[in-house]
Amino acid sequence: MAHVIIKEELYDKEFVENNVDNFEAYKHYILSEWDLAKASRYTGLKPFLIEEAAYLYSQAKRALILWGLGVSEHRSGSYTAMAAANLATLCGFWGKPGCGAMPLRGQNNVQGACDMGGLPYVLPGYQSVLDDTVRLRFQEVWGTNLPTSEGKTLPTLLKEALEGKVKALYAMGYDVAMSHGDIGSVWKALSNLDFFVVQDIFMPLSGKYAHVVLPSACLFEKCGTFTNGERRVQLFEKAVSPPGEALPDWLILTKLAHILGFNWNYQSPADVAEEIGKVWPAFRGIKHERLKERGIQWPCLDETHPGTSMLFTNGFPKGKVHLALAKYLPPFEEPSNQYPFILVTVRKLEHYNIGSMTRRCQTLMELYPEPVIDLNPEDAKRLGILEGAKVKVWNERGEAIFRAHLDKRVPEGLIYTDFHFESALTNILVSPGLDDLMETPEYKVSAVALLPLN
């Protein structure tokens, strides 16, 4: 699309001139490295459709690019997100109503977790760990020294656990033994740890490998905030008390800090929000009392500030935009004679992620009671697979058994399946491939074989 937009001069020339610092280099890269034939070969789309999309997008008065989590679950996932942002920049679709490029985050508070520093290379507010000034400000508020180097991604931590370099892990609300890609390798890594703590609302599969399991409160048993994809911070209130020994996550961590000799004095999540405002100016005006009235979009610079509904209305924080030279990387695995199908993991309407909550709902289990693979009827015919028959899906990493559903919408050579059930641990089949930059597992491209069991 960028090739067509630049070649046909469909881009916003004034916006690009005023806001982009490397347009000529980007233009040369796009025109020399990309064309419709190449894009068609990689995507499977007909060239005229790509060209038509480029015209429709670039000539729109307002355009917003939305993409789901699946985009990230490829080796080129990060580059695809960059390419989407590049398109918005080329066409001047920033700082205007109904415009931009926006990922639909995978869960309800992924945005909030990232905002609060849930990434290995930043502190809250996306402030670099490597910035001495930033680090000093946090040290003054937190009263402790901070590391001067970036942390490690989860795949790196698991790899080093397998090698014996990482000795302990603490998993909060993440069943790494079921959720991660290539979970056979994950199980070996977890078994190699000296100390593994699991903190969750239900006993996860990871609990099998844990030395300590801490029961935490679920959404309706605590209060706090969630931040959605439009940066809107929303308050949720406690509806019922947590059962047994379960506690809210913030209280578990506070008690643990006291045991370890740190004087954390939070009395409520509101105290945590107050501290966030001290280290991140964009959060300074977001208080729990204000959130009782309505959600607020950061940046919110003080208690009289209404929040910011739209970013970049007055330009970009760092001046001009640098267009990424996004590239395509082939998947880690391709179909072969031994493993002729590509497995794509998907979420089904009735269940959510690994099903740790939805499998406990009788109504949802009645609607979708067991793991299913969707495959093309022509593929099924060649293999002798009947509707409703059991099928073994396997590769060198492991195997899982599913019920077959024939669906002509599924392209030949592909199979779609859920990952909601412990009875069929789909992620044992997932490729060890990772996104080139963020190291997200390549859940969407794994080579497998099928064996009918009917």
- Tally of strands: 16
Total tally of structural domains:
3
Report the average pLDDT across residues: 96
Structural class: alpha/beta
Overall helicity: 25-40%
Stated plainly, the CATH topology of the largest domain is called Rossmann fold
**CATH level-two architecture of the largest domain:** 3-Layer(aba) Sandwich
Notable characteristics:
6-stranded mixed beta barrel, Dimethylsulfoxide Reductase, domain 2, Barwin-like endoglucanases, alpha/beta, 3 domains, 30% helix, 16 helices, globular, 454 residues, single chain, Rossmann fold
Describe this structure in words.
This protein is an alpha/beta fold and 454 residues long. The protein folds into 3 domains: 102 residues, Dimethylsulfoxide Reductase, domain 2 (3-Layer(aba) Sandwich); 188 residues, Rossmann fold (3-Layer(aba) Sandwich); 112 residues, Beta Barrel (Barwin-like endoglucanases), CATH 2.40.40.20. It contains 16 helices and 16 strands. The protein has a 6-stranded mixed β-barrel with strand order 11-15-12-14-13-16. It has a 3-stranded parallel sheet with strand order 5-6-7, with no helix packed on it. Strand 13 and strand 14 form a beta hairpin. Helix 4 crosses helix 5 and helix 9 packs across helix 11. It is globular, with a radius of gyration of 24 Å. The relative contact order is 0.12. The mean pLDDT is 96.
Please summarize what this structure is.
This protein is 30% helix and 16% strand.
List the SSEs and their pairings.
Layout: H1 2-7, H2 13-19, H3 23-33, H4 36-43, H5 47-58, E1 64-67, H6 77-90, E2 100-103, H7 110-115, E3 122-123, E4 127-128, H8 132-142, H9 154-162, E5 168-172, H10 176-179, H11 183-191, E6 195-200, E7 212-215, E8 224-227, E9 232-236, H12 249-259, H13 269-279, H14 288-291, E10 296-297, E11 341-345, H15 362-367, E12 372-375, H16 377-383, E13 390-395, E14 398-406, E15 414-417, E16 446-452
Parallel strand pairs: 1-2, 5-6, 6-7, 11-15, 12-14
Antiparallel strand pairs: 3-4, 8-9, 9-10, 11-16, 12-15, 13-14, 13-16
Helix pairs in contact: 4-5, 9-11
InterPro entries: Asp_de-COase-like_dom_sf, MoPterin_dinucl-bd_dom, Mopterin_OxRdtase, Prok_molybdopt-oxidoreductase
Domain Molybdopterin oxidoreductase: 1-257
GO molecular function: iron-sulfur cluster binding; metal ion binding; molybdopterin cofactor binding; NADH dehydrogenase activity
